[in-house]
Design a protein that fits this description.
31% strand; 5-stranded mixed sheet; alpha/beta; 7 strands
């Protein structure tokens, strides 16, 4: 399951994975994101609260996630990842080869700092 909220009038999407992700999660998320991209052309930012990220239900869910990222990454300017897990601090270097967005890690408590960075036009 993926909980989500929009910030700044649908310019920034905050997502919170809860439990192992399924193929359906990405279909539902696409149903929320795609109309906004069609209307505005892109998202200013994506904030991923990865504190409770528990992986994927199965291989099909993983493939759906990869496909979702591939199909949507060019429509996102910046991605902020909130997590206190050590591995997530290295995530920007790992995904830099796969996404065009600028990616930056933040501690889980730095929600406002992440939002400020996402909306900064710099």
């Amino acid at each position: 399951m993926i909980d989500y909220d929009w910030h700044l009038g649908h310019k920034i999407l905050e997502v919170r994975p809860r439990g192992p992700l399924s193929e359906e999660d990405f279909q539902l998320l696409g149903g929320q994101v795609d109309p906004v991209i069609r209307e505005h052309g892109r998202l200013t930012g994506l904030m991923i609260d990865a504190q409770d990220f528990a992986g994927w239900e199965n291989f099909v869910a993983l493939v759906s996630h990869v496909r979702f990222v591939h199909d949507h990454q060019q429509h996102v300017r910046r991605i902020a990842v909130l997590s206190d897990q050590a591995l997530m601090k290295f995530m920007p270097r790992l995904v830099d080869h796969f996404v065009s967005a600028e990616v930056r890690p933040f501690a889980a408590a730095e929600v406002q700092s992440a939002l400020d960075w996402l909306e900064d036009p710099g």
